[in-house]
Each structure stands twice: as structure tokens, then as C-alpha cells.
Amino acid sequence: MKRISILGSTGSIGSNSLKVIDAYPERYKVVALGAGRNLDLLERQVERFRPRSVAMLEDDLAEELRRRLNKVSGPEVFSGTQGFIRLSQMEEVDTVISAMSGAAGLIPTFAAIQAGKNVALANKEVMVMAGPLVMAEARNRGVSVIPIDSEHSAILQSLQGHRREDVRRVILTASGGPLRGLPYEQMKYVTPEQALKHPNWNMGRKITIDSATLMNKGLETIEAKWLFDFGVDQISIVIHPQSIIHSMVEYKDGSIIAQLGIPDMLTPISYALSYPEHMETFLPPLRLEEIGTLSFSEPDFKKFRCLHLARVAAERGDSMPAVLNGANEVAVELFLRGKIGFLQIPELIEKTMNAHKPFAIDSIEMVQQADAWSRQTARTLV
Ligand code: MG
After folding, report:
1. 150 CA distance to ligand 1 centroid (A)?
2. DSSP states of 46-58 as a string?
């Protein structure tokens, strides 16, 4: 029986994780749930799953939840980053699903590893900002970090039963996002509504904008680099609009092992929870004969400059990936609020990166420092 804490339980990954857990009550138990702002959904989840502890990021929402759950058998309610750290480190918990959005997940996820918990990681920003620290800490504590991100789940699956030293490269697939076919000249007119319409995946707002700029694939490049210890030159990207092949591993003899499936996050979530087993998900089977054609093309690094910037940051290392990530979060937020145009997202990130003097990252505090510097700088450069 795995005893689970979910950080970000009301988001897309969190809700889908609860579906998997709900289907296997004899294998999984929810011990703790943490959410950002969705009070109503968290309340329903508490009633359904009866966790020991819950947390909300904001104090007043936590207070309101306490009032609503004011029953004798109600869970303990915590708030803020400290509250999420508690959920990460509870004695009864052995597995933490890290599914918060953005940099907010860094400290609670790192705290989980420090407390010796296995992590199922959906929050790629954690790996982008602090990959070397996170992986070193996981090795020291003897815990596993299993990716939920569909591409990295595909890579993990394609590595099974093969020798790591026989790998030539990995090939990350990208759907190309909602703006794939749009001419460059029209990209400056893209509205948040257009960018939020992803053709294949149903995800949160931040990651959907990252898919439209292809920054998501850039962040995934950095995530793959740290998670599997590849050089940036060993990570290729191919546009594959059908999102059926979730990624591939190429071996020295020319063999390519791919993982395929319908685009539904239930598959990578369930694999992360049952690794190395495969559990029944009750998803409809993939019918290649109905799909007919799988197509592939090269990504356009000029049109999707975020992809280029992420590779620059990945190669530079040190504090640069955290700076890339911080500036991206600020830019995406400004875009969603209508304050900057679509093409100003990469512009702002690039200006911030150009203003940065990279420094070595030896502690999680230094990651936070790079992140704070980046956000502040991006806000003044806008
Ligand atoms: Mg992904």
C-alpha cells in the first residue's frame, strides 16, 4: 500500500491522480492533499478521500476551509509554503505527487526528497530550476524521482530493459501546440484565448501557454537532461502533431524504441504510481488503423524562439535555467493578463537572460535567489 500526499490536488494532474487512486483503493491511500486556490474542489476531495492533513497556499482560504470542515473528524488544515512542506514530510507518507504549477512547487518537492519520500514529478519547473540539486539529494536519500510528464514517462519506458550506455540520443516529441500552422507575421496578434486552445492535451493555463510558445518543449529538454543525465546535444525534438508517440530513445545500433498511446495523462500518472508495473487504466485503446497517419517535421527555432532560449540556458547551466524559468513565468502571466503581446514573451525572457551573470548553484537558497532576481528583473525590463 502506497501512502500518498498530493501537492496540487485540484489541478489537472492532481485530479487525474485521484482518479487512479480511486480505482485502486487496495494499492493507494490519500494521506494529504494540498491546493492553491480551488477551495470548493478541495472540500469535495476531502469529503471523498478523507485525508489526515490538507493545505492551501493562502492563509484566508485555509481559514475558510477550516471553518467549512469544522467537524470532529476533519483533517488538520495548514497554509502557505510551510503547510505544503508539512504535507511533503509527514511520517505516514511514502510517496509525494508533485503537481503544483510553476516555481511554487520547488521548496515542498525538495523537502519531500530530504524527508526520504519517493516523488512522482509532474512539476517540471522543479527539475528545470534545481535539477542537479534534486537528483543529488534523491541519490543521497535513496529515493526515486519518477516523471509524470508524458515525454519523460515515454523515455523512462523506452529505457527499460536496455543498457543506458547504449543510448545514442532521445527524441522528444512536440505536438507543436495551437499555433503550429500560424505564419510568423501573425504571431504578434495571438490572443490568450487563441493560445489557450490546445488541440490534443487538456492542461492547466500556464503549461498550455508554454505549449503555444514551445517553451514547454524547452523546459522538457532541461528536465530530460537532469532526470536522465543526457547532454543537450543528445536531446532532439521532433514535431508530431498527433501526439501518439510520446517520445523515443535511439540506441547505437540505430534501433529506436518509442512509447505510444492516446494522449491522456492517466497513462503516465498511473505508470509513475505503479512503476515498473503497468496497471489497467480503463482508457479506450489506441487504434492506429483509425488514426491512419503519424506525421513528423522539424521544429522552427526562429518562429519559436523560446525553444532556442531554453537550449541556450540548458547548455549554460548554473543559475541560467532558473532565470529562464522565472522570466518565463512572469512573461506568461503578463501575457495572460493582456499586458504584453505573444512575441514579447521570448523577448522579455531573452532580455532577462542577457542581463544575468550566471552563478553556480550549491543550495536551494541560491536557486530561490536566481528565481527572485529573474522575476524582479523581468518586471523592470518589460
Ligand atoms: Mg509534457
Report:
1. 5
2. HHHH--SEEEESS
C-alpha 96 to ligand 1 mean position (Å): 19
From the CA of 220, how far away is ligand 1's center (Å)? 7
CA angle (118 as vertex; 148, 322 as ends), nearest 5: 60
- Ligand 1 centre and the CA of 225: distance in Å? 14
Residue 278 falls within a domain, yes or no?
no
Give residues whose Cβ lies within 5 Å of ion ligand 1: 149-151
Report the alpha-carbon distance of residue 104 to residue 244 in Å, rounded: 31
- For residue 280, the CA-to-ligand 1 centroid distance in Å is 22
Q: How far is the CA of 122 from the centre of ligand 1 (A)?
A: 9
Q: Looking at residue 204, which CATH number applies to its domain?
A: 1.10.1740.10
Query: Separation of 124 CA from ligand 1 center, angstroms?
Result: 9
> CA 380, CA 267: separation in Å to the nearest integer?
42
pLDDT category at 72 given cuts 50, 70, 90 is: low
Average pLDDT for the chain: 96
**CA–centroid distance, residue 60 to ligand 1 (Å):** 33
Cα 46 from chain centroid (whole Å): 24
The Å distance, Cα 237 to ligand 1 centre, comes to 12
Q: What is the pLDDT of residues 129-170, one digit of tens each?
A: 999 999 999 999 999 999 999 999 999 999 999 999 999 999
Tell me: do 87 and 188 sit in the same domain: no
Phi, psi of 55 (to 5 degrees): -150, 150
Query: pTM above the 0.90 mark?
Result: yes
What does the longest C-alpha to C-alpha distance in the chain come to? 63
Structural domain including 374 reads 182-213+303-382
208, 284, 274, 15: CA torsion to nearest 10: 40
**Same structural domain for residues 141 and 186?**
no
Residue matched to cell numbers 543550495: 363
- Ligand 1 centroid to Cα of residue 313, in Å, is 19
Asked if residue 135 and residue 86 are part of one domain, the reply reads: yes
Q: Ligand 1 centre from 319 Cα, in Å?
A: 23
